[in-house]
Predict the structure.
Amino acid sequence: MPDAPPSLAELAEEGRGAIAAAGSTAEIEDVRVRLLGRKAPLTVLKRSIGDLPPEERGRVGREANQAGAELAALLAERTAALEAEELDRRLATDRVDVTLPGDPPSSLGSLHLITQTRREIEDVFVGLGFRVLEGPEIEFDFYNFTALNHPPGHPARMLQDTFYLSGGDTPPDSPPASPGGGPPETPQASTDVLLRTHTSPMQVRAMEAQEPPIYVIVPGKTYRRDSDATHTPMFHQVEGLAIDEDITLADLQGVLLAFARSIFGPEREVRLRPHYFPFTEPSVEVDISCFRCGGTGVAPDGGRDGLCKGSGWIEILGAGMVDPNVLGFVADRGYDPDRVQGFAFGMGIERIAMLRHGVPDLRLFFENDVRFLAQFGR
Ligand SMILES: [Zn+2]
């Protein structure tokens, strides 16, 4: 004789035990299906109530509903308890480290093209044995002009070119600067603090701080009263200075050739053209062979190459042999013009960046339009 089907009381008892024994939300879900699902004994029993003798149907139906309601309530209670336990466990173990980058990491932006270019230039000269120095942007007239052989009355000393921070116009009630009551010979003679107009003041400062030999470059901001498509009131330069024994113009050309090939490609050539700067003698302007037309001056379409204006050469910087008069200001630091000599150069970082990347307008660097800046992100 087969076992009798379990009674309602037995089903309810077994259900209560299974609910209490479930150890996770996954297990309690299995228990729910087993106790109240379509094939659960209680469900089967309810469906068969119609087969019972009529006098038993009411009692069995009521008891089955009571048992089902009790089990459903116990399931809900146990499920809530298990969910709460699991949440507590997750909170205790799965701590989120809010200092980690997001997933995927959000973009942090990139270095400004001027900064990238400055660092590349620094890398080239560090590789050639130069040290990188920085200097004050607020400078004395002495270092910016006087010690760099700018004679009194030099146009660069005039108010229309230079931002002076003290002095400026000679006060109307100040005594005349020249004996005899005539106009002062140098109207700016009393102005001694300014925003440096070039990075060259660091030539003399560096030599004051270090005896020869000296090999330094000085990147930094410079200021002039100019504003148009090719001039901004603030811009960046890199100064270079090399003083040693037996340095010639050929050393300057070799250093600049190495620089040009590092920045503009291994095929580049440089040429020096005579020029004039107050603090170098002789002075030169330095051209590199055009990297777009390969120095031919001819564009791919057969016309004139606009970048080099058909010449095959592009001017990139000014340079020269340091004037002995400049060395005279630091002669007591060992810079005897009869024993040591050297070269200096200065280049605009914006110009290098514009040439390399085809930037048409200097002002784009400082308008901070993200659409422009993001093109150079890396
Ligand atoms: Zn060209």
